[in-house]
Structure formats: C-alpha cells, structure tokens
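User: Can you model how 5'-deoxyadenosine sits in this protein?
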Amino acid sequence: MGRKYFIKTFGCQMNFNDSERIRGILKTLGYEPTDDWKEADLILINTCTIREKPDQKVLSHLGEYRKIKEKNPKALIAVAGCLAQRAGWELVKKAPVIDIMFSSFNMHQLPELINQAQAGYKAVAILDEPPGDEDKVWEFPTERDNKYCAYVTVIKGCDKRCTYCVVPRTRGRERSRPLESIIDEVKRLVDDGVREIHLLGQNVTAWGKDLEKPLPFSELLYQVSKVAGVERIRFTTGHPRDLTDDIIDAMADIPQVCNALHLPVQSGSDRILALMDRGYTKEFYLGRIYRLREKVKDIALSTDIIVGFPTETEEDFGETLDVVRKVRYDQIFSFKFSPRPGTPAAEMDGQVPDEVKTERMARLLELQKGIMSEIARSYEGTVQEVLIEEAKDDGTFVGRTTTNRWVTVRGGGNILGKIVKVRITKASPFNLDGDLLEVVR
Ligand code: 5AD
Ligand code: SF4
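Assistant: Here's the modeled complex, given as structure tokens:
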C-alpha cells in the first residue's frame, strides 16, 4: 500500500501555491493524498504567521495531530511555511512532536528531510537566507484541485519594510523568478487545460527589477498574454507605489488581463501611512485609483485595511472611512492590528485597546456592507462573461466574472472550463445568479 500524506494550509494565496508545489513533490516521492489525517503517514502543516491568530491555530492543530503517533509511531509530522521560518527551533521546543521543519526557502529539500526524519533525526532545516539553489523548486510540478485556474508564483519575498509586517522576515528579500521559467510553467498549465493564470508575489508589481537583465512587470503581463490558450490573467498583490503607469496601460491594453485589482491601502491617514512606512499618501493612493478607473473601464477593486494601528485616532480612522467611501471597493479585507514579534510597530507607543479596534472594525464593515449591496445590485440585468469552474450536483454551474464575482449559472450542456455569456438575474453581495446565454470560447 502506498504512503499517504495529509496537508493543512493556512495563510495567503502564495502559501496555498507553495502547498500545491509541496503536493507535487510528495507525488514524485510516491505519496498519495488523503483527507483524513488519522490515516496519514505524513502530516504537513503549511503555516502562516501574519497575525497572532494563525500562530495559535497551528499549535492547537499540532496538539490534535500528535495523536497520530499513538496509532502509527512511524508517522511523521512536518511544519512548513512562515511560522516555521520565524520561530525555528523555538517551535520544536514548544512542540517536540515536530519531525520535519522547513520554509518557502527550501521546499526543494523536502525529499532529503523526509529521509532524515525516517532515519530518526529531527530534520529542521530553517535557513537565515534563501539558498542559492532555491530555483530548483520550479522543476517540480504542482498538484492542483482547480482544473481551469492556476496560481503561478513569479516573485518571492519582499523588500518593503512596512513596520507592522513580518513577511520580509519570513520570506526574505525579493527574488524574481526568471521569465523563461514562468513562461514554461504557464505553457505546461495551458497544455493541462488551464485557462486562467493568476500571477503571485508578496509584491508582484516589483517583479523583474532584480533579474540579471531587469524587466518591468508590464512586460511579464505581455509575455504571459502571448502564450496561446491563456484566456485570463490576474495578479496579486500589487503595491500602490509600484503600480506604475506602464502597468496600468498594460492592464488596459491586454484583453486577457481581468477587470479586477487588489490594491492594499492599509489606512487612509497620511500620519498612520508614514508610521507604517508605506511610502505613499492618501492622495497618491487615490491618484492611482483614479488613473486605473480612467484607463480600465469598470474595474473592480479590493483592498486590505488594518484597523487600530498604534496611535490611530478617531480622526485617522475617519480618513480610512473616507477612502472607502471614495473608492467604493468591491471587497475589503480588514484586520485588527496584531503586534508581531520583531516588527517596529509592535514596539510603538500608543497601542490601541482591543475594544476600540473591535468597534472601529464594526463601523468599517457596516459602511462596506452598504456599498457592497449597491454594487451587487448594479449587476442585475447585465450580461457577464463567466469562466465556468465547477459543475454542481443540482445541474447548475459555478464560475467567476472577470471582476472576480462568483456566479451560479443555470443552463445546460457541457460548459465546464468554457467562457460563457450569462444574464444576471439576481445579485447578492457574495453571489450572483444568472442564465446561460451562449458559449463564447
Ligand atoms: N496586523 C494586522 N494585519 C496585518 N496585515 C499584515 N500584517 C499585519 C499585522 N501585524 C494585513 C495587511 C496585509 C494583509 C495580508 O494582512 O493588511 O495586507
Ligand atoms: Fe501568512 Fe504572510 Fe506567510 Fe502568506 S506570506 S503565509 S500571509 S505570513
């Protein structure tokens, strides 16, 4: 009987894509996936440490998964990802049940680490710096669940120094993946039936600057769009400072680039933005948004907002609400400020009490709720292009618009993986319903 692995992933899309790569590596080693950790020979947790909550979740999961060893003493427990990178041996001391530990720096070493652990050693490979041979990881295929939409990591790490953020510590400095390696993977994915390519990086708009022959991110968009079979392109996450005019022009110019952009603002207050070291003002940010709206018609925008950054006053928070009112985001991801060990903001005076964060967050969500239902309503009666990703048991299909909205589609035939025209009949903030009109391609 083959060996089985169980994988649990926390955190962002990049971590999710790392897990797809890890699954690909495990497949080449002869492991098969299982959804039941109790029958696994290898349990792997890909961790996140962006806020305190995901840290705690990992510890509680470890507490549960350790029971595997009672039934199967040879079973291995591996911890990967950002918490592993940040906490290192400290985490193994807290949870000695861990056999293997590595991070996004050295996923390609997983085969050796498994061998070491099987030989009875603690295989903890947490490096201070990304190793010189980390590009080897691209030689492994990914294992994906979504047949039609695929993530492609194009740049690792982050050179920005936002004072609240732990990521530069966990994912290192910016390393762009070479163009050829990206295009090779995109071609392979398209051959495999993929139609939508989602380019990923902590700071994706910085891609290309550190290459031997530097290239702008807009060039990457053009190159990916030229691969035959790529019908849609998305990218996450852009930084407002790096969203240069050439990128906005490329978004307007390339038909496959989707009508959606996630552009974290974090705060609307210039004073807080300076304390965060974001490198822009509210006016600069809004300037980018107005330019986008002018060039890319009907673009749907989403953002990240941190509520209760140290010293945030009612007036500062009011500026954030003002940005939300002006931009009218399709979606907002809001977080209470969470002090992360080793970051400057964690040490700042004027930490905001939790009740205040909770109360401000509630007001932000209330404002956003109204905006979202108004935007949703504006879809009713319109015709949208939808890429169908899934067939439901009740005969309906599910897919997304180019503005990244989920649509439940009535109407038959084999439309899986097709881009279809749909008339929207009903709209709620998180889902649209519609009738199939025709298959486009
Ligand atoms: N506290 C709260 N939110 C944070 N984020 C990053 N670091 C912190 C922190 N220390 C949020 C930011 C970022 C998103 C991924 O997580 O909004 O864009
Ligand atoms: Fe979490 Fe940030 Fe790491 Fe993503 S990069 S897994 S959000 S800590």
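A couple of observations from the model: The longest helix spans residues 354-377. The mean pLDDT is 96.
User: Helpful, thanks.
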